Amino acid sequence: MGEGRLEVDAVSKCYGDVVALDEMSFEVRAGELFGFVGSNGAGKTTTMRIILGVLAADAGQVRYDGAPLTLRTRRRIGYMPEERGLYPKMKVAEQLHYLAQLHGLGPVAARRAVARWTERLGVAARRDDEVQKLSLGNQQRVQLAAALVHDPVVLVLDEPFSGLDPVAVDVMSEVLRDRRAAGVPVVFSSHQLELVERLCDRVGIVRAGRMVACGPVDELRAGGGGRLVVDAPDAPAGWADGLAGVRARGWEGSRTVLELGPGADDQAVLRAALASGPVREFRHRRPSLAELFRDVVSGSDARGGGGDGQGQGGAGDGDDGGGQSVVAASAEVVRTESDADAAGDDRSGAHVESAGRPA
After folding, report:
1. What domain range includes position 241?
2. Edge-to-edge strand list for the sheet holding 202-207
3. Which of 148, 209, 237, 302 is the residue whose CA sits 20 to 30 A from 42?
4. Is the entire prediction scored with pTM above 0.70?
5. In the chain, how long is the greatest CA-to-CA distance?
6. Same domain flag for 154 and 246
């Protein structure tokens, strides 16, 4: 499908007087892992739900492959919500089969996909268990299976690593790398910035509904100002105060982490440290993504929350009553309005007569 690029172009969204998104813009290229990071309420989940079509933007456009997203294209997006988005009383295999059919797979293709992804994600032995009886980590694995079961052309994952143990993190990381290798654009949000830094090709940092920094991790770190780590165990508190262009950014045990601004003299820093006693370490390093994130988002997030906790029809936990799960709702939005052209879909069984709302 051409370049396979996902583009979010100047998308805005308000809830009354609250500006959730303010001309949000970024792109995720084919075969790219894109980290979407920001404080709670910065607008990440709102952006993802607009991509899915669960929310409508007030302005702007979302495109895939250079064309505005259609209902048919949205049907082929894989979505993993931050909150639990599954029916807790449904069995794992039954639920994944249902979701696969909502996204257009026929019964045989759906069964094969369920077998493939439950095996790959290590929950094959839990196929006949109710979701609510699984550990939180296994529920996360099933949620990822739900996002992958229909072989999506785009993956949109909201906090996919939340609550996972290190083994599960490795499994999920491997799956995301495989999807990247298959040419799928993958966008995911996470507060685990070390993991984002390790996995992602590019990162976008969001503040108050706007993209405020975006690019490859190495480029962002290189542009984030130099850091100087000084281990002077006998130095008194504030020993670097008053040095031109130097600001203390934190402490790591006996080490002081300093930021060097334009014109700062590292040799003056060394002399000041030596004046207090021995210096055991003195080295330059670039800021980590976590340090860069703190620099970018600190201060002016005056709008407060509202981007992600909309309270305007935002779905909550998986439903065992009269509502729908978030995952099913996103698929149903697309299915309901796209059945008219489903006959032309080249994927087997595009129309799902039997996949109604589960009892």
Report:
1. 225-285
2. 77-80, 154-158, 186-189, 33-38, 202-207, 210-216
3. 148
4. yes
5. 80
6. no
